[in-house]
Amino acid sequence: MIYLDYAATTPVRPEVIHAMTESLTESWGNPSSNHLAGHAARKGMDRARRQVGELVGAPPESVIFTSGGTEADNLAIRGVARALSAKGRHLIISNIEHSAVRVTCKMLAEDGFETTEVPVGPNGVLDPQAVARAIRPDTILVSVMHVNNEIGTIQPIAEIAELAHARGVLVHTDAVQSVGKIPVSLEALGVDLLSLSAHKIYGPKGVGALIRRKGVPLFPILTGGGHERGFRAGTENVPGITGFGVAAELAMRELPARMRHDEELGTFLLESALAALPGSKLNGDPDLRWAGCVSLRMPGVDGADLLATLDAAGVAISAGSACKAFKQETSHVIAALNLPNEQDSGTLRLTVGAPTTRAEIQEAVSLIAKAVESLRGKVAR
Question: Among 38, 154, 186, 294, which is disulfide-ready with 29 (CB 3.0 to 4.6 Å)?
Fold first, then answer.
């Protein structure tokens, strides 16, 4: 298999597996228990909290461990909404947010909240001034993802945060697709809340975190025993959290090398694909994006048929978010770009990772070109 779907998930690093195995076999106690077994588990969690915090330049006490990026997004949005409902019930997001944000905001309408979706431009980038114009006296939160999960565009989060804070509005960013790929700093971005996930950075699935700046009002959405300093009840997933910590430490240490790798391989992938696929075009901004993500639209090809053909040929890629892979519907991200004849085009998302090689890319592009030619030939006949 040629795997070019690293935005969906990444393989778990051997160092992470080792740390998780050690946690499962030696530090299996309940971290809330006041005895040696509990202390050992708590020590591993404390180390991971420090490692995850350091990855985004945040103190350990700002890290709230969750079951993943989706829960972190939910906690940020629902938690702020409940904490500040007396102040206002208006939220602002972009129209290309992940479903964890979009659907959560839609569901809050049942509780009297209103959400404004600010449209991105044809290049998939949000205008900070457009966000500022959407702010109202009752706005309590702006939530904009840092790197888009389908087209890789990088949003001007720091400018958005500065404008929102000038109006007394909190800012959350879903940084699940940016952490470990480009520099991410809580202070540099200026946000109040930041979501991240372990399995996007060669860690385990089922664990993530919400970074909460000190003093930001936040109500828990899971209640019970008061774990995670009262922000997220439930006995923590200590092995997963331990693995997350190691993955975070590796990501911080290797970030410069990973960025060079993504830039080199991503550029090679884009140039090779555009040359081999006549009529194909890049979705999103050619410059303001994570280099390792290449989203292409190809006229005259059905995206589902193309993915099925490539899967049979041993090429693992996607059309967009893995969270919607089994839904036969147009991507809301691609639709938001208002591209000409988008309904007649198939879209592929190819993303590189640490194991990706030039040889893999060459073979994948060749197989994609053959599949496109074959499918277009069937349509013509």
Answer: 38
